[in-house]
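FAQ: What does the model actually see?

It sees only this:
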Amino acid sequence: MADRPQGSGMPEKGTPEYDWLYGSRSKAPSSDATQRVEAQSAGPDETRVMPVARREARGSAAGAGATPPGRGRTPAAPASSPPSRPRKRRRFRLGFIPLLLLLVLVYLIGVPLYHWTKIDKVDAAPDGNRPDDQPGTNYLIVGSDKADDLTDEQREVLDTPERGGTNTDTIIVLHTGSGGRTMMSIPRDTLVEVPDGGAQMINAAFASGGAPLLVQRVEALTGIHIDHYVELGFGSVINTVDAFGGVEICPTQDMKDPLARLDITKGCQEVDGITALAYSRSRHVTALSDLDRVARQREVISAIGDEALSPWTFVNPVRYWQINDAATGAIRIDEDMNPLDLGRFALAMTGESQTCTMPNLPAPSDPNRIIADPDRAPALFKAIRNDESVPKQACTPTGRAR
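And it is asked to produce this:
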């Protein structure tokens, strides 16, 4: 201990103790010494943290179609645009509806126009003086025995040969206007004056002079100006009723008439075309004969009109075609009637209307014939001429006073 040199008690420079305490300044640090790493600037290929604002800008650029560095190109649809396929389907559906409606409208108009071109036209304007034009529209409806469009089976049932229509048992004046709709029958046995003197049954005018002479006789009898003429044959009635699938009639008694090929029971019932025609032509069963018959004729015409108003007539294209084809198959119209006039006539045949028989009395010269009642008939004729409401006492089913 005495031999230890005396010193300051501090480790000497260069000794391990000195280096451990104060650190070595040598460039080669000890393998286990803690080393301080100096901050270095990022190299060109090192990942750098971008500022927030720059990352957002880069995101916007990517949404516009730019490709971020280091990532694959994955195009994205604009966020504001709906999917393309649903929008195309919706656009197709919206465009299909107007097209469908247009096609339906063209069909509803085109079918009657086509069949109108097939209708026979006749010159129904009489010669000589005629009543002046009057308010409203007056149609003369004539039912003829025209049977040249019937099938062989229909002719066999009706026991009638093929013929062009020279006789009539239906004469109806149909008036439409502001005064209402009136359907007035003129019985075929009505006696009318003729220019050469004397009198004859009104249906004889049709047999001898056709449409023009019949129009002249009706105008002379009633003072009513006839605007349009419509003639219906057997086939028009039969085929139209069958195209509707039948019509409803309501006989007030059992009716069995071999001459008309009719055998039905009392009460409302659905009948086919041949039965409807027989029902409207029968005159040998009821007490008033022809006066009862004209009332049944108006009943059948009204029943056809009711069926025509059914929505099923227009929504079923096959039924619509068949009805137009049947209705125009045995019909004749005056030469002045255009498609619009024919459409108005079809509408006039539908809906509610007053139904009358011309006020009449037995003819003094022949109890089997009738004449216009001189006391009651003028009021009915005047109401139609002036487009006024028809007096109820002048409008009865058989034309006889109540």
